[in-house]
Amino acid sequence: MKKLFCTSLLAALLVSALGSAAAGTLAVNIAYKGASQRAVWQSTLDEFKKANPDVDIKAAFVEEEAYKVQLPGWLSTQAPDVINWHNGERMAFYASRGLLEDLSEDWKKNKWDEVYASTKDASSYKGKQYALPTVYYSWGLFYRKDVFKTAGIAAEPKTWEELLDACNKLKAAGVTPFVVGGRDSWTLAGWFDYLDLRLNGNVFHQQLMAGEIPYTDARVKKVYTAWKTLIDNKYFIDNSLSYDLDGAQPFLFQGKAAMMLMGTFIAKGFPPKLAANMGYFQFPIIDAKIPTAEDGPAESIHIPSKARNKVDAHRFLAFVGTPAISAKLAEGLGSLPANSKSPEPTESISRIGFQILSNTKGGIAQFYDRDMTKEMADEGMKGMQKFISDPGKIDEVLNELEQSRKRIYKKT
Amino acid sequence: MPAQTPAITPARPLPSDLATASKLRRRSSASRRNRAAIWFLAPACLMTAVYVLYPIFYTIYLSFFNWDGMMKPEFIGLANYVEMLHAPTFHVALKNNLTWLLLFLLAPPAGLIAALYLNQKVRGIRLIKTLFFAPFVLSGVVVGLIFSWFYDPTFGLLTLLLGHGVPVLGDPRYVTFGIIFAALWPQTAYCMILFLTGLTSINADQVEAARMEGAKGWSMLRYVILPQLRSTTFMAFVVTIIGALRSFDLISVMSSGGPFESSTVLAYYTYDQAIKYYRQGYSAAIAVTLFAIMLIYIVYQLRRLLRDEG
């Protein structure tokens, strides 16, 4: 009897807790890296609360790596109302399983079609939108201005010849031209992306990413051959596979290496003393006939289809989708606002990134591991590591990738 | 455990059976004692069932399914195992596990040597003991980080010592050995502690008697000390072998299984498949394989031990 009473009391409590949670509490889960990113999200949430006093916000900040692990669990069981994530293939993985809310209505209603035109494709899966893009960032070559000067390099290289010439001058001055943290295989993927985009163009690149072109194609080999020339000339640091992104940066800070191909999100982490000394330029043109395309991966926010408070979640998305908030997020995250109506960034590296991306004629790619299925991307990046550890093995690596492509994309 | 249950829960006596009242009372006091025993055992049994037995059986069950952790699991029979046997990474992982197993067996002898050295009564030996003991209390992540810095081919201590950089963690040929070497450091300390404890319980009279007989040095160790350390040695080997088979943390910290999965082991492969690719069923199949390998080994060792004791 007593037991029954206890159980029913517990049940009543649970029901009332759930009931009150549904009325005006917005659960937001945010993946973040570093205190400054957390702070900008927190202040965005505060502002939303100020504008919508009837909504209680329950925010959970989870460090990015842990977030990636926990996300599938949330989406399939007790989902929060809003999550941040990446669009493109990463989003499609969940969208295809029906775990994300269809936002096509929001796109029409809020006129996002206009302001987010450049990221609409990456936010869509089978013609429906599942994401609100927040920020995106540009990729390019970071370099040490002072090191360039002492090596006698007059201007930022604009073409392949100018880049190779600069490399020679740097080598002569005793500085390694490029640093790359190959232990994080995605840093190598940046090199593949740019060499492929410059040599073969975005159309080919996207076909390759979609698994429609065999890796044994001569054009893929051309990319690796160009890369091999750089390695054979010792333009990259020794033992790059021993370093991750954090481990690679000291080469730049100590002036042992001059350039690094990376996304602008890294600029926030440069030591303040060196920040003024760091320049940033567009990856040089290799073939003038090919329209320049760039990597511009976008971040986004989504509503899980199992969210309980979808009404307020839609309101929150509409709030974040305004030009002012988009600009604010971009500045705090060291990126560019995805909203085209946002004011242009003021900080110099972000501005160059903005110019690079707004002047692109060949289109914007989402980045190697966001443009294709995760499994194939990982096989591809493992292949790059194998190639770096022994550049003579191009054919072997490409043959193995072709086997993986046939298996993963079910081609025969 | 279940086999004992009927014995400690005797059949409830019929209330009408008044003639055997005294017997009943005696039995009821016994059954009360038994019931108390059950209550004391219950929490442990429950924990074992929930946290050990259920996961084991569920993992085995799961290994016959294709499941991404979100949608409905799909029964696919032995397909996961078939795929696993054809996956190059599985063979790399198995080979690395074997390398771990073989090289990790250096830890017990090294621990024994350290223990013999530290088992002296000299001034300052406590401090030295503490230093030897230190790596054991460090977490695997810390050990991994320290060794990553040590191996750094540009800024690391190893580079300073050798005069040139060796990419220990960046070269598929060296990476597994580099990580095993790092892992041996705390494992040796662990074995050393086991042996130090064993040495304190050695019968001093026997050692004295042996000395009178003229035994010293190697013969003393071989014929007097080691036989008395048999159970300690057994423990050291079992712990080390299990440690080698479930090696995970150092690999995760020092190489993430790379470059290109050359340093992965079964435990890391399991994690990778479940967390990165959401392949819970396939991951379970690898885990079951690792479990089977450990089980076979443990059963073999236990049988040997029981035979020796008997």
What is the SS-derived class of chain B? mainly alpha
Which architecture of chain B per CATH? Answer: Orthogonal Bundle
List the domain count of chain B as a whole number. 1
Distance from N terminus to C terminus of chain B (CA atoms, Å) equals 23 Å
Number of strands of chain B: 2
**Average pLDDT number of chain A:** 86
Global geometry of chain B: flat
Number of contiguous helices of chain B: 15
Can you give the mean pLDDT of chain B? 85
Counted up, domains of chain A total 2
What is the number of strand segments of chain A?
14
What features would you describe in this structure?
The complex is a heterodimer of chains A (412) and B (310). Helix content of chain A is 50%, strand content 15%. Chain A has two domains: 26-137 and 297-341, D-Maltodextrin-Binding Protein, domain 2 (3-Layer(aba) Sandwich), CATH 3.40.190; 139-294 and 369-409, Periplasmic binding protein-like II (D-Maltodextrin-Binding Protein, domain 2), CATH 3.40.190.10. In chain A, helix 2 (35-51) runs antiparallel to helix 14 and helix 17 (374-389) runs antiparallel to helix 18 (394-408). Chain A is an alpha/beta fold and 412 residues long. In chain A, a hairpin with a 2-residue loop joins strand 4 (124-125) and strand 5. Chain A is built from 18 helices and 14 strands. Chain A has helices at 2-22, 35-51, 64-76, 89-95, 104-109, 112-115, 145-150, 160-172, 185-209, 218-232, 245-253, 272-275, 310-320, 323-333, 348-358, 368-371, 374-389, 394-408; strands spanning 25-32, 56-63, 82-86, 124-125, 128-129, 132-136, 139-144, 176-178, 257-263, 278-281, 294-295, 298-302, 336-337, 364-365. By secondary structure, chain B is an all-alpha fold. Chain B has a single domain (87-309), classed as MetI-like (MetI-like fold, Orthogonal Bundle). In chain B, 72% of the residues lie in helices and 1% in strands. Chain B contains 15 helices and two strands. Chain B has helices at residues 5-8, 21-62, 79-86, 88-104, 107-118, 125-137, 140-151, 157-162, 175-200, 204-212, 217-228, 230-245, 249-254, 266-276, 280-309; strands at residues 65-66, 74-75. A two-stranded antiparallel ribbon of chain B has the order 1-2. In chain B, a hairpin with a 7-residue loop joins strand 1 (65-66) and strand 2 (74-75). In chain B, helix 2 crosses helix 15 and helix 3 (79-86) crosses helix 15 (280-309). The longest helix of chain B has 42 residues, at 21-62. Chain B is flat and about 65 Å long. The two termini of chain B are 23 Å apart. Classes of the chains: A alpha/beta (412), B mainly alpha (310). The A-B interface holds A 68-69, 72-73, 75-76, 97, 99, 182-183, 185, 237-243, 247, 250-251, 256, 374-375, 378, 382-383, 385-386, 388-389 and B 68-71, 151-155, 165, 167-172, 255-256, 258-261, 275-278.
